[in-house]
């Protein structure tokens, strides 16, 4: 008997499937109750299980994980492409808003130009009238001086005063110029008009499982093979 195994191990080995202790017992020749046929049967069963597991790992499980590994670069490229599309859509929306703002500014600029033209027309009209009146007054002053210097009684007797025509001063233009009244920019309202990003959701996806053949012995897996969806993280988009 192997000195590393006690009598209790030898007795217990016949009740379990640990083939190490029975083999040692048989080689020692001290325990005839252990049948070599039983040990060989256990070894045969274990070999069959090992062969089956090997085939499943090679033909099924390994290929699935390999497929998952090959999909990672594709997924990474897809994420990058989607991010580029998001940025492109964002820039398109920004350009659309800029275009609308430019259109509004251009319309208001045109309105200001039109208002300016109207005001200038009124001012020029008043200027022309005022200059004409000034010229008339200058001419009257010359005429009056001439009458004062003349000895022609007829001309002096025909004089009619026009002072009343010019005592009323020309009206003074009172122009109420328009002002620009900018509205306070409401960021929340602007966000609603601009748009928003949906929240980021990362989760695992069920990919199925490889099932053992009926009646075959299999040890429980040390970890699950992604057969249940699992939420990894939820990232809301904040501003």
TL;DR of this structure?
Helices cover 62% and strands 4% of the residues.
Tell me about the biggest sheet?
2 strands, antiparallel
Q: What is the C-alpha radius of gyration, as a whole number of Å?
A: 53 Å
Number of H/I helices: 6
Structural class: mainly alpha
Topology, number of strands: 2
Envelope shape:
rod-shaped
Overall average residue pLDDT:
80
SSE ordering: HHHHHHEE
Q: What are the low-pLDDT stretches, counting only 5+ consecutive residues below 50?
A: 1-22, 213-217, 222-232
Share of helical residues: 55-70%
Strands ordered across the widest β-sheet:
1-2
List the helices and strands and how they pair.
Layout: H1 7-13, H2 20-28, H3 36-149, H4 153-157, H5 163-167, H6 187-194, E1 200-203, E2 231-235
Antiparallel strand pairs: 1-2
Write a structural description.
It is a single chain. By secondary structure, the chain is mainly alpha-helical. The protein has one domain (35-175, 186-205, 226-235). It has 6 helices and 2 strands, in the order H-H-H-H-H-H-E-E. It has helices spanning 7-13, 20-28, 36-149, 153-157, 163-167, 187-194, and strands at 200-203, 231-235. It has a two-stranded antiparallel sheet. The longest helix has 114 residues, at 36-149. The radius of gyration is 53 Å and the shape is rod-shaped. The two termini are 75 Å apart. The model is unreliable at 1-22, 213-217 and 222-232 (pLDDT under 50).
